[in-house]
Amino acid sequence: MVKVIITAPRGHMDGLIVKAACEREDIQIIGGIGPAGRDYIGQDIGIAAGLGTEIGALVYDNLEDIIDQCDLVVDFSRVELSMEVLEICKAHKKGFLCGTTGFSEDQEKKLLEAGSEIPMMKAANTSYVVNVMRKLLGTAAAALGDKAKIEIIEMHSQTKLDAPSGTALELAEEMITQSDKTMEGMAFHSVRAGDTPSSHKVLFGCMGEIMEISHHAYNWECYARGACDAVVYMAEHGAGLYTMEDVIGI
């Protein structure tokens, strides 16, 4: 049984992770963390997350108060909170699954370096299918080389702050790693409209033909299920820097 703390339970992604974790027998939610002053502090996390029922774990406004009761903290919130959570997890030697995006290069470096001290995963996307897509893109980029111009079109809800998305950047990094492509040599197109969960389309434009590899999420539940699988995997493997590819086994 992996004991977890989930931040921002009122957030759309985190609320779904609460729901997905409650449906599993190998994960126990110890509590949630919300900003001080919010009306749901002290409330059962099941109610705060919109499940409509209590699960026996409360929402706190200070991670230090309950950090020693957990194995791992799950955080899909905002950059500032994620960096605070990182330092607390390191100080208490607790695992950290971070799904927040929009970090600076220096912040990104600190997150990745934490893998030398604690179980650590920074995943812009915890969907199984997206991570398989990432592998396919690397293979395609390596095979097509300079024959294709690559364009990445990504769509998210109008509330998403960063652009390009963290997933789009990770897909590009995979293609760069597997070929002679550069970040500057790829074109990114970001759409922020409505309540689109996530859509990523990569076009390989060649003379006389074009190839498209795409992924469309119709809701956020696939990410929540992937995050729960990642939590269990990290708890079983101890300190280290992990990716969803480790969890999936690809």
Can you put this structure into words, describing what you see?
With 250 residues, the protein is of the alpha/beta class. It folds into 2 domains: 2-122 and 221-248, 3-Layer(aba) Sandwich (Rossmann fold), CATH 3.40.50; 128-217, Dihydrodipicolinate Reductase, domain 2, CATH 3.30.360.10. It is 36% helix and 25% strand. Strands 3-2-1-4-5-6-11 form a 7-stranded parallel sheet, with helices on both faces. Strands 8-7-9-10 form a 4-stranded mixed sheet, covered by helices on one side. Strand 4 (72-75), helix 3 and strand 5 (95-98) form a beta-alpha-beta unit. It is globular, with a radius of gyration of 19 Å. It starts with a strand and ends with a helix.
Tally of structural domains: 2
Examine the coordinates and then state which fold CATH places here, giving the name of the CATH topology of the largest domain. Rossmann fold
Distance between the termini: 25 Å
CATH H-level name of the largest domain... which superfamily? NAD(P)-binding Rossmann-like Domain
CATH hierarchy class name of the largest domain: Alpha Beta
Q: C-alpha Rg, in Å?
A: 19 Å
Mean pLDDT: 95
